Amino acid sequence: MKILVVDDEAIIRHLLTDVLKDDQHQVVAVENGKEAVDKVKDSNFDLILSDIHMPVLNGLEMIKKIRTLDKNITIVMMDSFPDLLSELAQEEGAITCIHKPFELKEIREILKKTQELKASKEEKVSI
User: Fold this and answer.
1) In what order do the strands lie in the sheet with 26-30?
2) How much is the pTM?
3) How far is CA 99 from CA 28, 102, 104, in A?
4) Which is it for the CA torsion 55, 14, 16, 72, positive or negative?
5) Which of its termini does the chain have fewer beta carbons within 10 Å around, N or C?
6) pLDDT tens digits, 65-97
7) What pLDDT score was predicted for residue 10?
8) What is the CATH topology of the domain spanning 2-126?
9) Centroid of chain to Cα 101
10) Where are the domains of the chain?
């Protein structure tokens, strides 16, 4: 699966990148929402894992812009302190919000569900 990791904290970007690559995924990591939007313009992703509170373009603003480019991409938000932005992000199309600190098991479960959903959509298209 091709995954875009978006977080202004370098440690989170590096952790997720290392773990996801170890699990055989293609990973691109950026540090803010503007960079994420630029990446989505240039490439297709199966999943975006993004922080909500970031400089330049926060997660909510990022989702709104990405939805104009790709309505089907799966987006999962991550947040250290859930607030109104978390709820608004889900209203804009994020499938869930994982609370930091998270367990890698949570990330892997979401990846599995995303892969299953993608596989079922592809089956319907090929029928």
Assistant:
1) 26-30, 2-6, 47-51, 74-79, 96-99
2) 0.89
3) 21, 6, 12
4) positive
5) C
6) 999 999 889 999 998 876 667 777 878 888 888
7) 96
8) Rossmann fold (3.40.50)
9) 16
10) 2-126
